Amino acid sequence: MKRRIALAALALAATMPAAFAADWPVKPITLIVPFPAGGSTDAVARLVAQRLGETLGQQVVVDNRAGAGGNLGTDAVSRAAADGYTLALSTSGPLANNKFLYPKMSFDPLRDLTPVIAVGEIPMGIAVNPALKAATLQDLLKEMRARPEQVSIGNPGNGTIGHLTTELVESQAQVRAMNVPYKGDAPLIVDVMAGTIDAVVMPITALLPQLQSGKLRGLAVTSRQRFAGLPNVPTTAEQGLQAESTVWLAVVGPRNLPAPIVSRLNKDINAILATPEARAKLAQYGASALGGTPQQLNGRMVSDSAKWQKVITDARITLE
């Protein structure tokens, strides 16, 4: 008798997530952004939240929880109930890179999160001061071979994707530069324009005005295809380096988020990303729309984790 009751309880429990998901959502949803308000991730999240709320018939509230390179807010989602009412629009840092940079992380993205959908990606730009006689990426690499550890390349900070991309390029090309970390984009751009440093590797977003005006010379973008806003700047792959590197944004939920909720979110956000409004908003921040399936996002998390683990380990990069 007790065995039959136990089996019946298990069967009931198995059907509860599907039944619960069928009624979802019945109250507002929180979309955590693990970065400050006003940035590109926040702006994209607010567009997704507004349009998703209209589709679902419930308000989607953006909650900015910045700190620890995006780890703080993303960790909050990993600890939330798997009921579809707490999600995150996070980035490749917390979802792939950071666990190899920070010695103490309270969550593992591959274990503790449910992939929902990739939203967009921003490539890195490799640019130089026009005074440097380098018209192509190969010219810059040739200069680095001639003057090991003397060509100065700035990045927005130790452990940032700009820094990791520089290390990836150096590893691929077997060259060494003088890596100069800055505290953010603005001082870095000022110094490369002044000729204080020779080159920069950083997300294309902050470089676009200088590249489009000719104040800096773009040598390469690190995306798989050329960036639409800079059609004359070739990719690293076109110049002989397999150095693909992007910052990507994605929606994730807690571990064990019910499949029906994941499926509905994925379908609705794919529809949002297909609109001209969403694509224009992403383009405003130097990003291209992605979309796709949860499985594709999971694959990206796995492959980027493996790639950046090697780069971070080989370069011995750590953050506290």
From TrEMBL:
Leader sequence residues: 1-21
Classification via Gene3D superfamilies: Bordetella uptake gene, domain 1, Periplasmic binding protein-like II
Stored PANTHER family: BLR1237 PROTEIN (PTHR42928:SF5), TRICARBOXYLATE-BINDING PROTEIN (PTHR42928)
The keyword Signal appears for this protein: yes
Keywords carried by this UniProt record: Signal
A Pfam family assignment: TctC
Transferase is among the record's keywords: no
UniProt family annotation: Belongs to the UPF0065 (bug) family.
Protein name: Tripartite tricarboxylate transporter substrate binding protein
Domain of life: Bacteria
